Amino acid sequence: MIESVRLHQMRSWVDGTISLTPGTQIFWGENGAGKTTIFNSISGLVPVTTGEISIHGKNVSWPKSYDLAGYGIARTLQGVGLFSGLSVVENVMMGANIESGSNFFKDLFGLSGQAEKKLRRRAEDALAWAGALALADKNPSELTYPETKRVSIARALVLQPSILLLDEPAAGLGQDDIDKFASLLQQLKQRCSIIIVEHHVDFIGQISDQVYVLNFGKVIASGTFDTVKRDPAVLAAYLGTSSQSGNDQLGGS
Fold first, then answer.
1. All domains of the chain, ordered by start, with CATH?
2. Is the pTM higher than 0.85?
3. 125-157 pLDDT, tens per residue?
């Protein structure tokens, strides 16, 4: 089954038709371009005045935030937001939805042993996929910032989503950690479709299958990274000229 989202002429400060299909899809643009607005529209966090959305090939009403799990969609935020009073694995368990058949708070305090074991196994599997299983028993205060990023992804993966939304996953990371994160995402796209908001150009080049470039709320280019980085509209919008090589200016060597 194709795991996808399609947006048509949405008007929540963003105009355009966007088809998000399997693989890693990137929304790229500077601050204020409309990237996070698209995420928030899909996530039910901002109202959409007009437009259509289809998920997994079916036209649906614009989702509310509490609808996402039912559509198989999980999202991370720019702020990691781990609970300091819980261990890493317990933080990840918090990401599971009610379909797991357990009440987390009962599980946490040992009132439903079998359900707790099942949920913990799911959390540990998610941590393993995120390359963070060794952190399971640590407190969030003991983690480095790159480690907290991995844990936040694990918390989204425990939902077992078909679509994973990542909001600026490379923000605040050094180049070595960005390279490791790119390798992680290449593995994760075997498990689910990934939609990313990002403006770190080299990172986009490493991980993207399809890139949508936004400027002042409009999609001005789409295609592979090699295609959009040479697009005259992209060069004019973000470099002030269309005469220079995109390979020289947008992350090429």
1. 1-72+161-253 (3.40.50.300), 82-159 (no CATH)
2. no
3. 999 999 999 999 999 999 999 999 999 999 999
